[in-house]
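Researcher: Sequence recovery benchmark, item below. Answer with residues only.
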């Protein structure tokens, strides 16, 4: 058999390969002293530069500044911004009902106030109509009727009682006119007729005097509310 001689070139190369140890990866040298400070300042400078020249941030800030300027121009300068409540159908119904009740009790107007009773039934809020048709409304009508039988009630106070009775005894088909185009047309006709009576029998200057201004404002509110329902 052939013996392996250490003096041969192949044996020496094999021996060096076996005895040679793999070198471990040495960690990267860390910067100390001034190197660390230089690297930190470089990173902060890059972050500041990228933040300062971010195009998306610049566009958002520009849009916000333009919106603020538009708000200031609309408001006439720096001040409180007021937001109006939405003019819903329920709010208009309450305005019409309160104006009708005020006009029933108001003095200084020559209008025929009996037309306010069907107008109130057509434009009163649904919650108020439900209360009048309920148990409490029936009891209120019963007590008012007893008082009317034994005591004298002025004509202005009879109209709310008549409106209560009309809502209670009105047929279902009549109450279905509420919220419809036909009911809105009837309400507009009543409001126009009341306005014609008020302003034709009293002059324009007299309508806005102290004794008639409450009735004038109530008639205007009723007319505006009826027109809004028709639109």
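Model:
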């Amino acid at each position: 058999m052939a013996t392996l001689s250490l003096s041969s070139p192949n044996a020496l190369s094999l021996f060096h390969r076996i005895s040679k140890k793999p070198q471990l990866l040495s960690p990267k040298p860390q910067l100390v002293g001034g190197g660390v400070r230089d690297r930190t300042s470089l990173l902060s400078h890059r972050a500041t530069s990228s933040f300062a020249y971010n195009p998306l941030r610049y566009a958002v800030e520009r849009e916000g500044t333009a919106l603020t300027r538009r708000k200031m121009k609309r408001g006439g300068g720096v001040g409180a911004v007021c937001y109006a409540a939405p003019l819903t159908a329920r709010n208009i119904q309450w305005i019409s009902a309160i104006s009708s009740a005020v006009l029933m009790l108001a003095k200084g107007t020559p209008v025929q106030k009996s037309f306010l009773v069907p107008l109130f039934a057509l434009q009163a809020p649904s919650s108020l109509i439900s209360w009048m048709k309920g148990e409490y409304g029936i009891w209120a009508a019963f007590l008012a009727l007893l008082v009317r039988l034994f005591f004298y009630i002025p004509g202005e106070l009879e109209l709310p009682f008549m409106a209560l009775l009309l809502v209670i005894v009105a047929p279902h088909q009549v109450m279905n006119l509420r919220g419809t185009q036909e009911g809105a047309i009837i309400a507009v006709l009543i409001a126009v007729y009341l306005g014609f009576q008020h302003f034709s029998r009293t002059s324009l200057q007299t309508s806005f005097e102290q004794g008639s201004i409450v009735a004038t404002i109530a008639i205007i509110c009723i007319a505006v509310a009826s027109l809004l329902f028709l639109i």
